[in-house]
UniProtKB/TrEMBL annotation:
Listed SUPFAM superfamilies: Arginase/deacetylase
Enzyme kind, highest EC tier: hydrolase
Alphabetic keyword roster: Chromatin regulator, Hydrolase, Nucleus, Repressor, Transcription, Transcription regulation
Predominant localisation class: nucleus
KW DNA-binding (keyword) present: no
Ranges in a coiled coil: none
Cellular compartment(s): Nucleus
Gene3D superfamilies named in the record: Histone deacetylase domain
Protein name: Histone deacetylase 11
Annotated catalysed reactions: N(6)-(2E)-butenoyl-L-lysyl-[protein] + H2O = (2E)-2-butenoate + L-lysyl-[protein]; N(6)-acetyl-L-lysyl-[histone] + H2O = L-lysyl-[histone] + acetate; N(6)-acetyl-L-lysyl-[protein] + H2O = L-lysyl-[protein] + acetate
GO terms, biological process: epigenetic regulation of gene expression
Amino acid sequence: MPHATQLYQDFPATCWPIVYSNDYNITFIGLEKLHPFDSGKWGKVINFLKEDKLITNDTIVTAKEATEEDLLVVHTRGYLNKLKWSFVVATITEIPPLVLLPNFLVQRRVLKPLRTQTGGTIMAGKLAIDRGWAINVGGGFHHCSGDKGGGFCAYADITLAIKFLFERVEGITKATIIDLDAHQGNGHERDFIDDKRVYIMDVYNRHIYPGDTMAKKAIKRKIELDWGTEDKEYLEKVETHVKGALNEVTPDVIVYNAGTDILDGDPLGGLSISPQGIIKRDEIVFSIARSRSIPILMVTSGGYQKRTARIIADSILNLHNLGLIDSASAETREPRI
């Protein structure tokens, strides 16, 4: 029997299936500025959505922190114990000064936000099934697998969300991951390398981190991009291959890893996609998923420029303006147990 968890519950129909907590944001005596990641971007996205009157504090779903028992659904106890060493967390998050801090501070200021985002992804998985779509404004830690973290990813939230659904929701037996972050999603690929229930499509810059050859064996539809790929080529490939992936296998749920590190000028992504290109990309993925009535869970993943928060918010607003996400459609589906 699955363990008891606080992450699966029903929410009022007045709540949008948009998941967030103030605990997502990492701020700690300026150490967060030593990594190119904007560790406050999640709060900025929510503030933009509030300013544009899409949501209020009362209409979003507040994420809960994943407990150790939740994490053990995927992670080994040995890996979780390693996170009790500050130097391990410093290596995973690529913030070397964390080595100098006592682990209780690292747990509270760095790992708790990541555990809360992980809980948010798991919660959003259930919401996507109940409502047809869900967005976790955080998450997308696609470099972490059950026994190894890396690339700022300490918990395998994508794997966890899928495994929770397989274990707990009747009729959910197949999942498709559409990973459109600029980097290869080697974490979930390693986790599902021998699992035929999970179809992985990954579009990434072939020249950058992590270059995980073993993990690539798990990818069913692999689209490797070159430096500086621009909107036209990128959007054509996304549309062609999303349709192709869903023609090959009709999943019970899509997990969409919507990294914004494809943005032109991103210091790590190496691609040249415009803000409008990112908004159009998300529109394409949601349009195809919604037209086929496949529940879709979106996580926001990587993005290393200050302007990415505005772009994520603009993309969510565009999805709403096009009727691809709305509270009315969110209320029409019966909860599944």
